[in-house]
Amino acid sequence: MKPTISVIVPVYNEEPVLPELYRRMCQVMDGLGEPWELVLVNDGSRDDSAGVIGQLHAQDARVKGVSFSRNFGFQEAVTAGLNYAGGEAVILADADLQDPPEVIPQMVARWREGYDVVYGVRASRVGETWFKRFTAKAFYRIIHRITSVKIPLDTGDFRLMDRRVVRAILRMPERNRFLRGMVPWVGFRQVGVPYERQARFAGESKFKSVRQMLPFAVDAITSFSYFPLQLATYLGFSIAAVSLVGILVVIGLRLFAPHELSGQATTLVAVLFLGGVQLISLGIIGEYLGRIYDEVKGRPLYLVDKTWGFEEERPAGATD
Ligand code: UDP
Ligand code: MG
Questions:
Q1: Ligand 1, residues 17, 206, 209, 213: which to mutate, most atoms within 8 A of Cβ?
Q2: How far is residue 100's CA from residue 93's CA, in Å, rounded to a whole number?
Q3: Of 8, 68, 74, 157, best ligand 1 pocket probe by most atoms within 8 Å of the beta carbon
Q4: Which CATH code for domain 5-206+299-308?
Q5: Pick the residue with more confidence: 274 or 169?
Q6: Residue 159: which of 137, 182, 135 has the closest Cα?
Q7: Using N-to-C axis directions, what is the helix angle for 130-146 and 210-224, rounded to 10°?
Q8: Which pLDDT does position 319 carry in this prediction?
Q9: How far does residue 11's CA lie from ligand 1's centre (Å)?
Q10: Closest ligand 1 atom to the C-alpha of 9?
């Protein structure tokens, strides 16, 4: 029997959380009175998450699993989940129970009212460092400013999507994926429900240092905005304008006060400054170029090692 609701959970080294996740999901999902499935996507965990998924599947066939050949990343894991999930509505949630399953009935209720996307808005965040909270806040605001897609503020990946939205997402084959932007891009009727983001149930966050968060932010910006590229143009014009004034000043000084201008320091500073600006601009172009290269290579988004509860393998890009 095809499930009405699928819950997709990406799993990377979440062994201690999975049994509790299953227990809480059962409590909530059974209360809905609809057939459901839990799709756990093991993103190349180094602990025994895969073993736990196998056990849960053996115990309850509604738990299904997909295991990658290695760690491909959060966005890829979710994409695989969307590929395999069979529900009329699909819910994305984190394994660590930071997104409380108890919010799901509200999401389903809004979906029944006719909304195609019901996203969770983080009204508050519990148990996260000030650094994480500050960077997250700043990130959402910058993205909001410079991208053309109106990505709702303080919205993570915890959301419900109707089948037609899932189909649209699966038709977007882009490599450096940023789902939080792709879903608003799709359109249809979207609505938010506020919730309290909980502390992690066990284990630790995989996105807490700048090094772990930066690639995510850069993907987000480059996928939805040309602003960094335009920045080079703006900077070029402003610097040219400033130097035009500089040229006039220098000519004036030469004519009327020939001994006022001396020293190479000014020249050196100007050259270094421009050199810096040019290198930054090149770097920005490089970011976009690298992404174009990724697209051109057209490699599969992920490779599957093993599945539990699915008959056939579904490569990325397959729509139902
Ligand atoms: N995750 C994943 N692949 C990765 C990193 C994380 O599938 O390479 C999963 C992880 O298991 C969790 C979710 O993505 O279910 C969110 O990760 P985490 O809770 O560490 O991030 P945070 O909530 O702290 O931003
Ligand atoms: Mg988390």
A1: 206
A2: 8
A3: 74
A4: 3.90.550.10
A5: 169
A6: 182
A7: 10
A8: 52
A9: 7
A10: 15
